[in-house]
Amino acid sequence: MTKYNARKVTEDGYTFDSQAEHRRYCTLKIMRDVGLIRDLRVHVPIELAAAVKKTGTTPRISSIVYEADFVYVDFEDDGKPVCVIEDVKGARTPVFNLKLNLLYRSMPMLLMGLAGGQYPIRIDIIDANDV
Description:
Layout: E1 9-11, E2 14-16, H1 19-33, E3 38-49, E4 64-75, E5 81-89, H2 94-105, H3 107-113, E6 121-127
Parallel strand pairs: 5-6
Antiparallel strand pairs: 1-2, 3-4, 4-5
């Protein structure tokens, strides 16, 4: 069990932090298989702030990395593709809120890195109770 009493689940070589995250993965796989989404990726690291190198007396500061539960291409009602960054959350911690804030501020960089500049990006936070 994790610190929030969630049970880890393993499938297809991925270890999910909760049963809710695993259920969402199963749903996304079905959506991918029937063509509703494409390019499903799991546990995608996204660098929000680069590391700062040590200079003089300033210590090295590690980069800030957010790991998205899922990244995939979805299609809007008008058929246009959109890159979705999705996270399944049972509890929104202060650290998660900080990383989410940085994620939103990183949108221009993300447009080039995650979607290759091809698609707009949508961030979805899925409540674990709704999965």
